Amino acid sequence: MNAKTSKRLNMKERYRIMTRDLGWEPSYQRYEDIFPQESFEGIKIVDWDQWEDPFRLTMDNYWKFQAEKERKLYAIFDAVSQNNGQMKISDPRYLNAVKLFITAVTPLEYNAYKGYARVGRQFGGVGARIACQMQSIDELRHTQTQIHAMSHYNKYFGGMHDFPHMFDRVWYLSVPKSFFEDASTAGPFEFLTAISFSFEYVLTNLLFLPFMSGAAYNGDMNTVTFGFSAQSDEARHMTLGLEIIKFILEQHEDNVPIVQQWLDKWLWRGYRLLSIVGMMMDYMLPNKVMSWSEAWTLYYEEAGGALFKELERYGIRPPKYADQTVIGKDHVSHQAWFIFYQYGHATAFNTWVPTAKEMDWLSEKYPDTFDRLYRPRFELLAEKAAKGERFYNNTLPQLCQVCQIPLAITEPDDDTLISHRDTVHDGERYHFCSDGCRDIFHHEPEKYVQAWLPVHQILQGNCGGADMEKVIGDYYRIEMGEDNLDFEGSAEQRRWAAWKQAV
Amino acid sequence: MSRVFIALQDNENARFIVEAISEDNPAAEVKHSPAMIRVEADDRLTIRRETVEEKLGRDWDTQELQVDMISIGGNVDEDDDSFTLYWNT
Amino acid sequence: MSVRANYANYQGPVRDRVENFHGSQLVYVMWERHLLFCAPLTFLADPAMSFDAFLTEVLTPALAPHPESEKLDFAEAQWRLDGEAFEPRGEASLADNGIGHKSQLRLITPRLSDLADAAI
């Protein structure tokens, strides 16, 4: 068979006519007045026409394919709700991962929608503007479909009722919130490097692939379906992320060191943020697909390795401190779950000590670290809980000024010592979890001095006073005994048992 | 040498697309996990419209791949007749 | 280095300056290689409070849930302040001991039990 004979234009021609040809040269306004943010970051663009969208997607086809994705997705949501889908999950503990998802990740989708709408306006190139427009609409779609997917569970489970409110206030949600606000308040090229490349290209596979596969394995049809539907857009975003980086690097050699510094920064920030995903995979999925360490090897070391090899010819080296992420992959999920476990009175989900069977799985997956460091910790906690002294940490943790995670991560070369760095800037002392976060601060101290650190805000009296019960209940809107505390003895556990008996 | 990959939803369309990929790229490795199929190859992987159409028994637009695709690794080159993933290394 | 902003002289507000803590200051304490408390602790303290009072009124009750707290003897402990070796004067105030706003104290104790094997 020969190439398709069609009355329609071929893909390349269609793309040219429906993107490039929509632009025009300004005649009565200055270019820099129309695109006032295009140059302040120091990025030099010589020829926007070099911008290439390898998918060559035009708006008409965009709507056609997106509509088809939506039809498929909503048919499944209907089927799940009509067939008591909430009862098909593997174990009610699983749903806690979904609670964390809607409070921590869904609001990021909404921020991404706003972010792409903003930066799309700032580029002189038509191809870049249209790509940002599509991505902006995609991100809004993700926000909406996630809310729809989880609204079914919200009818039966706690912790999801006030997710946008919680995103703006709850201590651990300041980690994703500050991550994205850092990107959104950067210039348009840094935003693309941060979100399109570092986050979408290098890191979202770690969130969506193993985790969504895990949702499928735990009987959560809504989550796996929206996850993969969203990820089908991500595949396009990722490709664009790679093209963007190559485009910027090819435009001017002066762009290379600027982009390198952004890659160092955003890979590190993303790595820290994903500690939460590591914990979801290793601790919150009752039926497990792969360990965080395995996922990091597959999606960061192998896939990311191929990518950075590709970028070498532009003068880009692998991100600084990448070696520390490889050491950290055997620790961070355990350390993160341990934070949430001990502050489980201030979380909008339940926490627990892993079962004996789960601990055996962790031993097998983490032969160098789990039995030596983490099993003894969980066994002590289990012992305390059995005596009716379930451990809750009633003090407040020290936080990193940049990633805002409690300083609970150990030194890369000493896994029994907390990693801590500090610096004095303009007479004020600042603390960090790592060299990576301290570097980021040093690069732009004027920005990070204003970090809204939840612990310090509580102690300044800005979160409803000094009474932690009031902070948690009134300021965060986490309902005591209903949304939080240990899974053992929780309202969720009681309800689940009652439903199962009724069936 | 680097690996390129494509991950597809494990659904009815994907079954035929994967069949077509395997036929056109004999060295490609197919890996199944819950709800997802991942196809990997060294440096290059091409999906040809003609082969997919033959397997599906109907017309197929290369851009339709977007409906079933979950993720990819590699540079993309797409036109009306094929969809290719590759690394330059 | 300094920030590259869209307008000149960009400077965010210093959100945690001591004036915002209504007469108190922040002090962080890390009990080294004791990871039952997942992270160093943050305390609000009066800078005029004596170091001894800080130990008995603030730190001791905070560390009480740790199984080794009963064996913890501050007389046997070593201290570091903001990365330097530190010999606290018990009767002197935090301020006079050089413990400033957002200073970090590290408490280093000899081996107290088998929990040390897993740095609990």
Automatic annotation (TrEMBL), chain A:
InterPro entries, A to Z: Ferritin-like_SF (IPR009078), Phenol_Hydrox (IPR003430), RNR-like (IPR012348), YHS_dom (IPR007029)
Give TM regions: none
Molecular-function annotations in GO? monooxygenase activity
Keywords tagged on the record: Monooxygenase, Oxidoreductase
Q: Where is the YHS domain?
A: 409-452
Q: What is this protein called?
A: Aromatic/alkene/methane monooxygenase hydroxylase/oxygenase subunit alpha
The species this protein belongs to is: Halomonas mongoliensis
TrEMBL record, chain B:
Domain of life the protein comes from: Bacteria
What Gene3D superfamilies does its record include?
Monooxygenase component MmoB/DmpM
The protein's matches in InterPro entries, at most eight in alphabetical order, are given as: MOase_MmoB_DmpM (IPR003454), mOase_MmoB_DmpM_sf (IPR036889)
Q: Which family does it belong to?
A: Belongs to the TmoD/XamoD family.
By what name is this protein known?
MmoB/DmpM family protein
Name the source organism: Halomonas mongoliensis
The beginning of the lineage is: Bacteria, Pseudomonadati, Pseudomonadota, Gammaproteobacteria, Oceanospirillales
From TrEMBL, chain C:
Pfam family for this entry, one = Phenol_monoox
In the UniProt record, does the keyword GTP-binding occur? no
Q: Mind listing the UniProt keywords for this protein, alphabetically? A: Oxidoreductase
Primary enzyme class: oxidoreductase
This enzyme's EC code(s): 1.14.13.7
Q: Tell me, what is one Gene Ontology molecular-function annotation carried by this entry?
A: phenol 2-monooxygenase activity
State the protein's name: Phenol hydroxylase subunit P4
Its taxonomic placement starts with:
Bacteria, Pseudomonadati, Pseudomonadota, Gammaproteobacteria, Oceanospirillales
